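step: validate -> pass
step: tokenize input -> pass
step: predict -> running
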Amino acid sequence: MLAKSYAIQMLLCVVGLAALCVSTPDPQDLAGILDHGDDLGLLGPHFDVGGTEPKERPKMLYDDPYDDLSDDLMASERPAYLEERELRAKIAALLKSERSRSAEEILRDLGVTHVPDDEAEEPTGDEEDEGNSRRGKMIEGFDETRDPPPRRNGVDRFIDDFIGRYSQRSYLDAQENLIEILKLKKDMKKEVISTCGGVISVAEGAEEVITTPDYPSNYPPSSKCTWTLVAQLGGDNSQLRISASDFELEGAGCKYDFLTVTDTAAGINEVFCGRKGPKDFLSFSNSLTLTFVTDESDNKRGFKLSVTGVKSTCGGVYDISGDEPLLLSTPNYPLAYPADTKCHWLVLSKTLVGVELLSYYINPGSQDLLQISTDGFSDLETYNTRKVYVSKVMSISFTANPHLAKSFPEPGVQLRVFPIDETRECNKTVTVSVDSSVVINSNKFPRGYDNFLNCFWKIRFNVTEGYIGRLKFADFDIEQQTNCEYDYIQITDQVQGKNQKYCGFKRSLVYKTNSEEIEMAFRSDESNLIFYKGFSVYVSLEKIRVDECILEKTDRDTWVFKSPYLPYAFPAYSVCNVNLYSERSNRFKIRFSKFLLQKKEACIKGDYLSVKDEAINRTEVFCGDLQGYSYITAGNNLSFSFSSDSSNTAEGFELEIQRMTDGNCGGNFMLNPGASLDLRAPGNKEGDGDCVWVFQGNNSVLLLDFNKVENVRVSSTGMYTNLFDYNERTLDFIDPSERYMVLSREKGVKIKVLAYQPFYDCGSLLELNTDPILIDNLGVLDCSIQVKRPHDDEDDNQAINFSLLSMSHSSACAVKLFDKEAGKSDRLCESDWRQDYITSSKTINVTAIVPKNRDENDFMLLVQPLQFTCGRTYDVIDGKIIVRSRDMDRGETCVYRFKSNNDRIVLDVASGNRRHLSLISVSTEGTFQTLKPLSSYSTTSLETNKEFLVVIKPLPRKTNFAIQVIPQPRVNNMCSTCLVLNSGSSGVVRSPSTDGLTTYPAGLSCDVKFEAEKEQQTVVLTINYLDIPKNTSVDRLSIVRGDSEAVIDPSRIPIKPFTLIEETPFSLRFLTATDNEYEGYEIAYNVYECGGVVTLRNDDRISIRSPGNEIYPTYTRCVWLINTDIMSFSDRISVRVVDFDVHPSDSLEFFDPLYSSSPIASLTGTVKDQTVLSTGNQLMIVFDSDSRTVSSGFELKVGPILSSCGADIDTAVVEEGVFSTLEYFPNTDYCLFRLRPSDGRVMSLSQVDWGESRELSERSKAFRGEWGPRAAEGCQSGSVLISNTGFLNGSQEFCVEESIPDVMSVHDLLVVVRDSALPPASFSFRAGGCVRELAVSEVPVGSLASPSFPEYFNGPVSCNWTTRSPLLLRVTFLDLDPDLDSFVLSDPAHSVNLTGAQFPRYALLEGPSAISFSGFSRGVRKGFSLEYEAVDSRGEWKVSEGHPVVILGRPGPHDRPSAWRVTGPAGIRGMTVLVWATYIPSDPECATHFLQVAGGVDEGVRICGGAGLKTVHVLGEEAIMVLHSTSALAVLAASVHVMV
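step: predict -> pass
step: emit ->
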């Protein structure tokens, strides 16, 4: 009892009871109070253990409520029959409520007399036990032992001593007065309240239970109950907590039966129904209103609610002796605290406790102060959220600044104090939960740590919903090393995939995880060069803040949604989920009044607000700075979700949400597959507001069509943030979607919505019925679907229509359609967008085309079955067939087929009105894909040797025409035929091929004649493929016009497709000598409706206009080829744009054959005052229009720019010479020279020195390949452009006055000189060298040598030999300059430069291969010579050390030697070939039949006859075995090893 008295006096003295500090406990007695191991120096700053009184009272931040109490309140005996809890509550309440009166006056009113301390009896041990027994006995049905012991704060300690020291007589006199004054109830447990409504007062420590009427039976119908709850806990800052232990009401959106909880002070009105009741609902004030409403039907069990009071505290002394945490908060928390608030808490514990700041949102400008000391009585420091506070004594102070006017109320402070376990042991498992934490220290912390430590801790988090695990290092001081290899802490988190080391000195190190278990290891090495403290880590669970956002209704149609604690920064790890539903509105308009969140990774991490629109099941996510932004939702049911992480907390957000109701404009619509919707906006005036439509497919994909619209905003996701502006020209670009939002302010807008059944199953069969289907591959790259039309019977009047509606990869084709019946494959690309692809085949394979880089390829393909009930199929065999319009079904689309049986047939159409021809479409290929309107042809007479397909649209009245089809004689030789062309004719001409092969035979003499039926036609020839010998004297493809013949030289067509333009009549002639070595050609021809060949003479100026009158037609292609009169090769062509208005989907392109194969200019849209200038005397202009909206078109003015400087030189006629701008001086502003190569020759170009000194350029080195672009700057005497690729694009530019390197080329060599004066630009040229293809099929063995061999060659010179067959080469001589010359052997897998190699040298080249030589030495080197032999390559093997290869060989199928190549790793000396057995019938000298084994740099050996084991060593990194025998008995077995 003495120890207890001393402890009470100490505590009261600490909190300010100066009167109780009159006597100082003896150190011996004080030691009995403290636990074993507590430091007596704890009280040093204020208590003299030696017994002297402190000089001054400890400084307090406020006046303690117990300052007026003194020792004379102590009485002697406590009553035996007074219930302790009631008395405790009475005295505590009275002491707090009567602060203006002294304690002595209060007790006198209670009839309590004072017993001085010296008269109080010391209780014996038995009396103490008896008193303790009395405290635990049951009084009036209440067993206190079943309740957890009440928390003992400073008031409790005082009351304990008060009760223990008052006499029994005094309490007997005071009992009646106490009960009457305080009106306290004896039984603190209330009966269950099941009445319908009423006022309920909740006392401290009491629990009220509220149920629905008749609970647990079903509640009655048509009821309304209202309960008013008031917390009577001795202050206005009390709160109420409500939790539902059972809850079942009718659901259905809380429209019928529901419970409403109203907190008037905070403006909160929450509604509960179904099975979701209130859980730990905490009021903001001391009163709540509960309203329960039911309708007349569907009654449920009801609910059972528990109501308890929560008393807020501000200051006091607390002793934590159990495991329960302690909550400390400012008055009225979480509402604003008073302006003059001062709180001081003192927490004492026998074990370690920690402090966690649950909420602390004080405006930094308010100067309010939260301070803490972990030393009990030392100076307080400002609370730092990054630090860890752990101690047995905590002193916490909060002081508000009463002199600073606040524009917003401060939410205040709430802290959680809880017990903590401490461990220094290694290899231990620790567990933390919501109510328990652990501190792990290094073994000697803070006095260092031992060497050779290898400790680990397994940390288990009993994670509950709303919490995360946290390791917070209060101190971290470990030896530093870059990779943390000496001393370190390692945290292994397998769930989060982390295994990270930490070392050095770190401040505020925090690790957070969602895992339930992690491992932490600490390792130290053998020594520490300096002192390190070690570490102390606080392991706990951190609460994720939930639902602290505010949603309040400001008027009838407006809500405001705010982030937590606005206008202050919201807390870290905060989560809010709020739903807003309005039955009286169609949608909401949301305005971001304030919005500032951190922006990280497209709003998917960090802090963000998401808004889910339940009407379209789409979520929009917001972050960053969006203040002032506003948008419209699709529906009237929104789910808001806000989440913050641990970093960069920002200002927050405030959203203003307004109801929107659709009147006679707008609405929300749901469409099923096959449904359609036609809507029309009323005649609203401009500015009346947006009409908002929201369309959503129910298992369907939608497609929009508009009419009478100038501008409309459409979102293909249904979300406002994805709205884009569309006009009448761009409406077709709206992709199909499952949902749309449409906004428009125009009057009379018409919207048609079509819903299609989607199909997503890649790799399956799609069987069509009568409804269209929309195929969506959902981004699957390797997607293939087989589409089958309805019915299996033969029906030529059925078809399938494919239309590409959407594709994501605009630079590639999206879909390949394979028609197995027709034996053809077609691609749908961007140019085919929204165009019909119709086929009559029963089955089509649809395959997604995978881009080369495997980028995304999403596409949507509309598949629609077609059934034509009008029409017929005819076989045109013997006689003519006539079909008349009068026999057709009017109002129906009619389809007719005329089959030719590979004979030539002719179709004619006779009509009295040409406008009727626009109703007829014809295909000469017999396919829907190649259908063209008959009106686009220049004649109504067409021919084919395949099949006519005729499709006739529904006929109007008074339509009259007839179709006649007659057979023509068979064309015996398709190699020589005549094509009669009209406007719109098109087709493909291919070279003949040998049966079963793709190559053409020898001895062909083909003439394909192109003639026009009436007027002369311009034919555009596009060379898509060309594979013939470069030596045109062997096989020749040419264009013949009259007596002139122009050879198509493959060496002058470096890039394909290549375009030629010719005028009828002309012939395409093909003569062949090679047999099945080349694949020939494929040339497409087209006769367009407009265009032609234009020749400019002298100063001619002509106009070129787009076709049509006011607007140009759709599906139009025009090609103009413009030439000058070829008086000078350097004449140029100028095109000036006079007028230009072309739809963005159409284009006008300009091609310059001397500059590039790509357009040099492309015009679209609206263009003014632009000029296009050609490089030479040719220019091609191409105009294309598609099926979309057209415009007025264009007008161009075309004229020549004459130049007399330049020449076109044919080196087949003039092998060498000189050209110079001096010849044309002074007309040298623009000069163009072209050198054309001859067969098998290489052109070389060298600058001619006229005696002037030239600056030596660093670029002036021998040319060895194609140049890249290069520009010359600051030229004084003009500039020179040189290209050896045949195109000036990418040419190199030099100044005339500088030295220009030599150039060689096998293509056209172009030289342009600009602004040249003196000195002149002069060059010499020569055609020499050797370029040809080796005809090894005719001559399988031969030799090659450099020019002039064995004499010295005179560079520059170049040779290039190619072959398609494998070759065995033996280099017999080499004399080259490694710096100037090059000798390269190459095939698809290898390339080797033999310039500095030794000889003899063997090499095996796979086909196709090339032998290239370029020499720039001048008369000092002899070059090279080699022998070659065509072989059958039997493959290549790779050998490495320890891994030999084994070869079993026989002769190949051809009459050639068989060869094997073995390659080893780089840097080896050579290889060892073990020939285990051979049998090669031969002569004794091995002259004709033998096995040759050779290395890359040695002759090797020959083996023949029957031989056993033979070992051959070859040098180099390559071994070659060649079997020179065609005998069926020849065989070999060998192994190849790396030489060691």
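step: describe -> Confidence is low (pLDDT under 50) at residues 1-86, 112-191, 969-973, 1251-1270.
step: cleanup -> pass
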